[in-house]
Amino acid sequence: MGTTLSPRDYARRPLVRLPAVSRLHVVTGKGGTGKTTVAAALALALAGEGRRTLLVEVEGRQGIAQLFETEALPYEERKIAVSHGGGEVYALAIDAERALLDYLQLFYKLGSAGRALKKLGAIDFATTIAPGLRDVLLTGKACEAVRRRDRKQRPVYDAVVMDAPPTGRITRFLGVNQEVAGLAKVGPVHNHAQGVMRLLTSPETAVHVVTLLEEMPVQETVDGLAELRAAGLPTGALVVNMVRPALRGEEHLEAAGARPADLARAFAHAGLGGARPGGRAERLVAPLLAQAREHTERVRLERGLRAELAAQGTPVHELGMLGEGVEIAGLYRLAGELREQWP
């Protein structure tokens, strides 16, 4: 879909404003749909006009570092890109063990005692046997970045984008704080969990789902949306990734059902072989018709899937396939596509 743009070309594009209401953008999707790529492109798009965005990774895969062709992300916020108008993208790979140490220091002032627990293996033990605790720490760290203020009480980050777990477990991942708040009736754990849930269920949060125009990803997207809504979590947009460019003349796809003999005569008339049976024109027809029928079926399937996505009552955006693979210039191109489509 169009030619690849360099970061400099992208910076010259007309500015399209993205919504300023949501400040925490959670990006999920079935495995293989490219959710990390979309999260990175969204962070670049949101960082326009001199704004600052934090891109957060919670699964420990270092996918963000690979996309931006930088070294592995530490447990600290690091600038990794500059967007339109001088906006900045920072990145953070949240580590559950380090987040728990921060948590112990923040609420219980353990300090060196917390570090001693880590040396004894207690921190790793706690985050391993209690996966719910791990999710609380990961979501809590991202929400802390959203709420953080500078000395003038301005948000440190204009937006936070979370590359979240896949659709199959996103509702449990985001809703675990509700369970923790119910278990811990009082105290800092209860207050922390409730504060996180207030943010996650508020208009400041939007959960975006990445999908492909394939039957299984679309079905998982529809199911995931239903689960998110049932849990009271705010849904944002559906992003259809890796969309293949439309071919010219697709309005004439009914030609795929034409009779081979008729097409052979048409080929012969155009000078592509003789019209006799078994001639070159006739040999060309069979494989071409097979490809046309396959493409026709694909187009009809995609039309049906687009209709199914449109019926979900959620904005739908499409991103083109990067034929040359995902690299820095490709991320800027996808960011530009998001800016053009987002209202």
CATH class of the largest domain: Alpha Beta
User: If you compute it from the alpha carbons, what radius of gyration comes out, rounded to the nearest whole angstrom?
Assistant: 25 Å
**Distance separating the two termini:** 20 Å
Helix fraction by DSSP (H/I, runs of at least 4): 40-55%
Are there runs of 5+ residues with pLDDT below 50, and where? 1-17, 116-129
CATH architect. name of the largest domain: 3-Layer(aba) Sandwich
Sheet with most strands: 8 strands, mixed
Could you describe the 3D structure shown?
This protein has 343 residues and is an alpha/beta fold. The protein has two domains: 7-245 and 321-341, 3-Layer(aba) Sandwich (Rossmann fold), CATH 3.40.50.300; 249-312, no CATH class. Helix content is 50%, strand content 14%. The protein has helices spanning 7-11, 35-46, 63-67, 96-108, 112-119, 122-129, 131-147, 167-183, 187-200, 215-230, 260-269, 280-310, 328-341, and strands at residues 24-29, 52-57, 78-82, 88-93, 159-163, 205-211, 235-243, 316-320. The protein has an eight-stranded mixed sheet, with helices on both faces. The longest helix has 31 residues, at 280-310. It is elongated, with a radius of gyration of 25 Å.
